[in-house]
Write a structure and sequence with these properties.
Radius of gyration of chain B: 17 Å
Oligomer: heterodimer
Strand content of chain A: under 5%
Distance between the termini of chain B: 47 Å
Radius of gyration of chain A: 21 Å
Largest sheet of chain B: none
Distance between the termini of chain A: 66 Å
Shape of chain B: globular
Number of strands of chain B: 0
Structural class of chain A: mainly alpha
Helix content of chain A: over 70%
Largest interface: A-B, 79 and 78 residues
């Protein structure tokens, strides 16, 4: 009896503490990735003070994607993902990783049907829904411009 | 502005998005593709409702690096395009403003995949 009760408590308690830990890790990892992004942004802005912010932002994103691509290629991003959970998924780096990782994994099936076709197994839905949603918002803005003027 | 405070804001905003994502994963067992889609669409909606700009001003890269910022970027481009160029702007504006991320992911992803060796998963 006692044993059963003990197991019950263990089952109740175990995932909870694990949840707390994964949440802390996600927060730290995600925050750190964003801080790195901000550092890249500030550095670029320092060296290119005349360039508009929008373009520096795009440079920042591209550099983050490049870093992620390389880290995924050498197998380091996998480890960050194991530690960081959602922290490594939700940022643009997670998006880049979701493209690069299946591409490498399916490379042996050939370049066209393996590498290229599998690049979008996870990113595909994101791109499709993202672009579709943006077109819907755009058409709404065209019909009701008053609602969207800033 | 105090640079330490700014970086703290970036850290907290970016971290909070990831924390919310982790809670979603832990409680609903959603796959990472679904999490990405949810956050992306949330970004589109928040930007369309004009709620994302204040988050972005406060959190800077903390708001633009997570995929939610990518969604907001898509919506912002589409709205800007629609207001400036009508229908074609509405169609192309979103992709235009997100082009850096899309082209970057595709081109860099392809290059990296070509040059790396597949590892067997342990």
């Amino acid at each position: 009896m006692e044993n059963k009760e003990y197991l019950k408590t263990v089952r109740k308690e175990m995932p909870k503490s694990k949840h707390a830990l994964t949440m802390v890790r996600a927060f730290l990892t995600g925050g750190l990735i964003c801080v790195i992004g901000q550092a890249i942004f500030d550095t670029l802005k320092y060296f290119m003070p005349l360039v508009v912010e929008e373009m520096i932002h795009q440079y920042t994103i591209t550099i983050l994607i490049l870093i992620t691509g390389i880290l995924t290629g050498i197998g380091v991003y996998d480890k960050i993902g194991k530690f960081g959970g959602a922290g490594s998924i939700i940022s643009i780096t997670g998006f880049a990783n979701s493209v690069v990782a299946p591409a490498i994994e399916h490379k042996r099936e050939g370049y066209i049907l393996g590498l290229c076709a599998n690049m979008f197994t996870i990113a595909g839905p994101v791109i499709v829904l993202g672009i579709a949603a943006s077109v819907i918002v755009g058409i709404l803005a065209m019909i009701f411009p008053g609602l969207f003027l800033r | 502005m105090n640079i330490f405070l700014l970086y703290l804001q970036v850290f907290v905003v970016g971290g909070t998005f990831c924390l919310i994502g982790q809670i979603l994963i832990n409680t609903t067992k959603l796959t990472s593709a679904r999490i990405l889609v949810i956050f992306l669409l949330l970004g589109v909606v928040l930007e369309a409702a004009r709620l994302y700009q204040p988050i972005k001003e406060f959190g800077q890269a903390g708001a633009t690096v997570p995929i939610i910022g990518f969604g907001a970027n898509l919506a912002r481009g589409a709205i800007k395009g629609a207001l400036e160029r009508g229908f074609i702007g509405a169609m192309t504006g979103g992709v235009q403003s997100a082009a850096a991320g899309l082209a970057g992911v595709i081109a860099i992803g392809f290059a990296v995949a070509v040059f790396s060796k597949a590892r067997t998963k342990k």
